């Protein structure tokens, strides 16, 4: 206990020393063919400010929405690529599924926000912006408006026409009960590595988790890698393994996008096995320490890995469609709607 307080004080002191730079990522992964930063420059020039202004207002009412939107982008990209399939009514993790894997639904308010955004965007630009791009922009703005780094989002994703099956969803998303040894193979299937895992897990600096997501660590007894006081508090919140209650993912600053999540891990106060084990596995531990000591470094690496994740399995050009309704495919058939590409040329989608 005394030692964990010492670590906390030391880390806090070092954090004060490192300057809180604006942290705009300079170092980006390669941009996938067909995506660009200027994709909607002529077809929807106000796109980014529409998204930013709308979310800014929504977050004043409910900051938890930011966590919900960030998580939707993660689920979208990990399951058959960032194609908006997570938004489809009928997808295994889609908005209408109540007990689909991974069991706990994504926040309904986040799905609603994406649909509201699309209506706003369509009102100004017509149906030119994909739902998958709206999800990617909303995730970035959730990070920024919670205090995290800004980064440029490559755009031009198109929406998928296939549902995510239950099996694909289960196979693509690591479980919170997984340790690093179990998670890395899942990530390597989509070319993400241990550094990406440490950086992206920093998304757990905001948001909440339900008892059932960490009951493996408190029942029947305390996971020995968990701090005793933290454990006592979790058992108060979740007296039984199936209690329907939630707790913050980052106890130090639950609604602020910062590097405190890594300080939690150093103090054995990470919530899930998949979190805490990052501090105990030799492949991930040193980066956890680096991020706990240097928020600027975390912000840079997070932005880098988010852009990488945001380009997984994207549909571009004439593939996929621009959905009229983010929750449903366009009338069974793939759209004949003309799209304007980044050079301003008309290209027929087929
Ligand atoms: C090893 C990979 C990951 C695992 C096992 C995992 C697991 C989970 C689980 C179990 C929850 C809580 C669900 C609940 O009980 O309500 C959660 C929440 C969350 N996750 Fe992850 N996650 C992972 C990666 C990510 C990534 C890459 C991001 C984004 C960059 C992310 C962002 C979030 C956010 C923001 C929440 C809070 C959602 C809310 O408050 O509604 N996670 N995650
Ligand atoms: C959660 O999903 C898994 C995998 O499909 C399933 O085995 C388990 O029974 C589900 N749990 C609940 C509480 O629905
Ligand atoms: C889904 O996975 C289960 C268990 O791995 C398997 O038995 C089943 O056949 C799969 N279903 C489909 C549709 O692939
Ligand atoms: C990770 O979890 C698996 C499955 O529970 C277990 O067999 C393995 O020993 C664990 N690895 C480490 C390094 O803890
Ligand atoms: C959990 O509690 C919330 C709020 O009280 C409720 O809306 C939800 O339906 C409950 N979920 C389950 C699975 O009982
Ligand atoms: C923190 O990381 C940034 C970005 O990599 C680096 O420029 C800076 O020197 C680091 N600060 C410290 C105190 O190590
Ligand atoms: C969008 O699609 C969903 C799922 O099919 C449907 O429930 C909803 O009413 C549709 N919304 C609009 C505005 O058409």
Automatic annotation (TrEMBL):
Residues under site feature: Transition state stabilizer: 71
SUPFAM superfamilies: Heme-dependent peroxidases (SSF48113)
Enzyme Commission (EC) number: 1.11.1.7
Keyword annotations: Calcium, Disulfide bond, Glycoprotein, Heme, Hydrogen peroxide, Iron, Metal-binding, Oxidoreductase, Peroxidase, Secreted, Signal
Enzyme class: oxidoreductase
BP GO terms, sorted: hydrogen peroxide catabolic process; response to oxidative stress
Annotated function: Removal of H(2)O(2), oxidation of toxic reductants, biosynthesis and degradation of lignin, suberization, auxin catabolism, response to environmental stresses such as wounding, pathogen attack and oxidative stress.
Family: Belongs to the peroxidase family. Classical plant (class III) peroxidase subfamily.
The protein's name: Peroxidase
Species this protein is from: Platanthera zijinensis
């Amino acid at each position: 206990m005394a030692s964990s307080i010492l670590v906390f004080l030391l880390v806090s002191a070092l954090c004060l020393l490192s300057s809180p730079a604006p942290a705009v990522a300079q170092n980006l992964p390669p941009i996938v063919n067909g995506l660009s930063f200027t994709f909607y420059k002529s077809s929807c020039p106000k796109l980014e400010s529409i998204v930013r202004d709308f979310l800014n207002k929504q977050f004043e009412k409910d900051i938890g929405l930011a966590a919900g939107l960030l998580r939707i982008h993660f689920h979208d990209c990990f399951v058959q690529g960032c194609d908006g399939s997570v938004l489809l009514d009928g997808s295994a993790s889609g908005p209408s599924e109540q007990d689909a894997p991974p069991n706990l639904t994504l926040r309904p308010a986040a799905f609603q926000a994406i649909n509201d955004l699309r209506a706003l965007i369509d009102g100004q630009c017509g149906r030119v912006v994909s739902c998958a791009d709206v999800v990617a922009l909303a995730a970035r703005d959730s990070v920024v408006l919670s205090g995290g780094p800004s980064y440029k989002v490559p755009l031009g994703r198109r929406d998928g026409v296939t549902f995510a099956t239950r099996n694909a969803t289960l196979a693509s998303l690591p479980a919170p009960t997984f340790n690093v040894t179990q998670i890395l193979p899942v990530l390597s299937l989509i070319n993400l590595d241990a550094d990406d895992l440490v950086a992206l897990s920093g998304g757990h600096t905001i948001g909440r988790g339900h008892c059932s997501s960490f009951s493996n660590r408190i029942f029947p007894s305390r996971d020995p890698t968990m701090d005793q006081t933290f454990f006592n508090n979790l058992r108060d919140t979740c007296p039984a393994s199936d209690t329907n209650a939630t707790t913050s993912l980052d106890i130090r600053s639950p609604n602020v996008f910062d590097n405190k999540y890594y300080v939690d891990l150093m103090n054995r106060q990470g919530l899930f096995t998949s979190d805490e084990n990052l501090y105990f596995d030799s492949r991930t531990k040193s980066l956890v320490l680096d991020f706990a000591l240097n928020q600027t470094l975390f912000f840079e690496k997070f932005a880098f890995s988010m852009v990488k994740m945001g380009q997984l399995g994207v549909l571009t050009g004439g593939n996929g469609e621009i959905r009229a309704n983010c929750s449903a495919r366009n009338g069974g058939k793939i759209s004949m709607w003309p799209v304007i590409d980044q050079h301003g040329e008309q290209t027929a989608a087929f």
